[in-house]
Write a structure and sequence with these properties.
heterodimer, A: 78 residues, Non-ribosomal Peptide Synthetase Peptidyl Carrier Protein, Chain A, B: 6-stranded mixed β-sheet, 5-stranded mixed β-sheet, 17 strands
């Protein structure tokens, strides 16, 4: 899931400036803005059938945080 | 669960009025660089919108023109109207209710039930349910639902997170008793815990106007507003929109055994393209069944559903069509309605100078 998520993330936010890792703080990316935030929420919903609440999303800063949040939502559903 | 069904009524006609002044977002430097402008246009699909600007026009002016033309073309005497619902968050005055002023301006009978409702993007659906509930209880023959906002007046022109999204419009929907018609089926909902997602903080009685209300604050780059201008939490509203709207539409379809195949059109409140595409996809409607008006008018608050019906659906005044309309937004509030139209009276869009 990690690699697939990073690929999707790059595609949606159109990240070209840096390599993304689990530790990347996506909020500090040159390409990051509010529209990118909405695109990521939409992508997560589309790919993983999970909608992160506004308060959950606000507290996440790294790619790894996002993956963990998605995973725990998927586990919660099971 | 708030489900509501009202039979034996139909929409006789719908009209709309927009101010003449147009803003072209592709030339709006507030949005930033050329690249940023293109990105905004791609994601929202909001290219142009009509604004009242300095014209002095109010929502009630736009609705009055829409209503007068509709009544005339439908051959209905204003005195026949027994229920008048006016939905807006941009009334003429804090008091009295603008609905009552409209009773006089439109030349309606003094016996009319005139009520103003404070709702935004879900307003047409709630306004219709209120009008129909009264009409049904009164066995009333004719009613008017006037819906709209001069929503750009509530936004800071220096706030790129709100100003480029919105347009102004006023609409009129004429309802008529029609024995044997399928009528209307509603699902309605609200969540007050999200009241801060879209809010004008000052100017009511919680935070009365003070000199501080007028101080422009820079929240971030390109986001400058004062406390009398609306804040919009884009992330929270987006998440709300892509969950609540599809769930409301699905609840309505389940309750009344409707399917995306059997209904001709899904008319969504016009928020932005990214959000609406997502909602449409989640409900199973194919793209040709989901019309958009936001490319020409932006997000027109409560006016968006009637404005979309009359400007985007071909042959609406000739053929019978079935629709589900869904409004969602400020409150937070949401509602969906199923109805059918047949030979709808649709006057040409009024452009008010």
């Amino acid at each position: 899931m990690k690699e697939q998520f990073i690929e999707k993330f790059k595609e949606v936010v159109e990240v070209e400036s840096v390599e993304l890792t689990l530790e990347t703080n996506f909020r500090e990316l040159e390409e990051w803005d509010s529209l990118a935030g909405l695109s990521i929420i939409a992508m997560i919903d589309e790919e993983y059938d999970v909608v992160l609440e506004g308060s959950e999303f606000k507290n996440q800063n790294t790619i790894g945080d996002l993956i963990n949040a998605i995973q725990s939502k998927i586990d919660g559903k099971a | 669960m708030a489900y509501l069904e009202i039979k034996d009524y139909k929409i006789k006609g719908i009209s709309a009025a927009v101010p003449a002044e147009e803003i072209d977002n592709s030339k709006l430097t507030l949005l930033g660089s050329e690249v940023e402008i293109q990105r905004f246009l791609e994601n929202t699909n909001i290219h142009k919108r009509h604004v009242v600007g300095n014209s002095g026009l109010t929502t009630s002016d736009l609705c009055e023109q829409a209503a007068s033309k509709l009544l005339k073309e439908a051959g209905v005497d204003p005195k026949e109207i027994e229920v008048l619902i006016f939905v807006t968050q941009t009334p003429d005055y804090l008091l009295p209710s603008t609905a009552i002023i409209l009773q006089h301006k439109l030349g309606l009978s003094k016996d009319v039930v005139a009520i103003q409702i404070s709702l935004g993007c879900s307003g047409w659906v709630f306004g219709m349910s209120t009008a129909l509930t009264y009409m049904s209880a009164m066995k009333s023959l004719k009613g008017l639902v006037l819906v709209g906002d001069t929503v750009t007046m509530t936004k800071s022109p220096f706030d790129k997170s709100t100003f480029p999204l919105f347009g102004d419009a006023g609409t009129a929907t004429l309802l008529e008793r029609a024995e044997g018609e399928v009528g209307f089926k509603f699902h309605l909902g609200n969540d007050g815990s999200g009241y801060e997602s879209i809010i004008i903080e000052d100017g009511g009685y919680r935070n009365p106007v003070s000199p501080k209300s007028f101080v422009l604050e820079e929240k971030s780059n390109g986001v400058v507003r004062n406390k009398l201008q609306s804040y919009l939490n884009g992330e929270a509203v987006f998440i709300f929109g892509i969950t609540r709207a599809p769930s409301s539409i699905k609840l309505l379809m389940e309750k009344y055994s409707l399917t995306a195949e059997s209904v001709d059109y899904l008319i969504l409140h016009q928020a932005n393209k990214m959000m609406n595409d997502k909602i449409a996809k989640k409900t199973g409607f194919t793209t040709e069944k989901v019309p958009y008006s936001l490319q020409s008018f932006g997000n027109t608050s409560s006016a968006s559903i009637p404005l979309t019906i009359i400007t985007q659906i071909p042959n609406i005044s000739i053929c019978r069509k079935s629709h589900i309309a869904c409004g969602f937004g400020v409150g937070l509030s949401w509602g969906s309605v199923y109805f059918e139209t047949d030979e709808l009276i649709v006057p040409d869009l009024i452009i008010v100078k």
